[in-house]
Amino acid sequence: MIGFLIALISGALMSVQGVFNTQVTKETGIWTASAFVQFSALVVCLGAWMIAERNPLLKVFSVQPRYMLLGGAMGAFITYTVIKSMNLLGPAKAVMIIVIAQLGVAYLIELLGLFGVEKQPLSLRKAVGMLLAVAGIILFKWK
């Protein structure tokens, strides 16, 4: 239950953050806004680390395989693409498409057992759920 609640909070925060970041780009530029977002995230993370964790920071470089450290770089492009899509499509349409893309890619990662994730069998129920989600987007966009 706590995982479900945390996921709901995450989704809500992502939507609000996307709107905030899109508004910031109106006064700055998209890369300026993205840089500020990443910098402010760094400050918050370092503060949380100092209070809650205190594990050695350089221990992150022992992570294997090394490509797993690209998550932060991906974060910069995630910020950019969220801002751009919200600006072009509006918050509701952009978030729906983003969530469907996340769900589709996550399911593919599970099906193929990529990046160290345990491989899962194809499930008709999950495939139908994906199709229903896509149908929901079509219905939402229908004029």
Structural features:
mainly alpha, 0% strand, 143 residues, 5 helices, 76% helix, 2 domains
Topology summary:
Layout: H1 2-27, H2 30-53, H3 71-89, H4 91-112, H5 124-141
Helix pairs in contact: 1-2, 1-3, 2-3, 3-4, 4-5
Give an overview of the whole structure.
By secondary structure, the protein is an all-alpha fold. It has 2 domains: 1-89, no CATH class; 90-143. 76% of the residues lie in helices and 0% in strands. It has 5 helices and no strands. α3 (71-89) runs antiparallel to α4 and α4 (91-112) packs antiparallel against α5 (124-141). It is globular. The N and C termini lie far apart (37 Å). The mean pLDDT is 92.
Mean pLDDT equals 92
The value of Rg in angstroms is 18 Å
The global form is: globular
Order of helices and strands: HHHHH
Q: Uncertain regions: pLDDT < 50 for 5+ in a row?
A: none
Describe what is shown at a glance.
The protein has 143 residues and is mostly helical. It contains 5 helices and no strands. The chain has 2 domains: 1-89, no CATH class; 90-143.
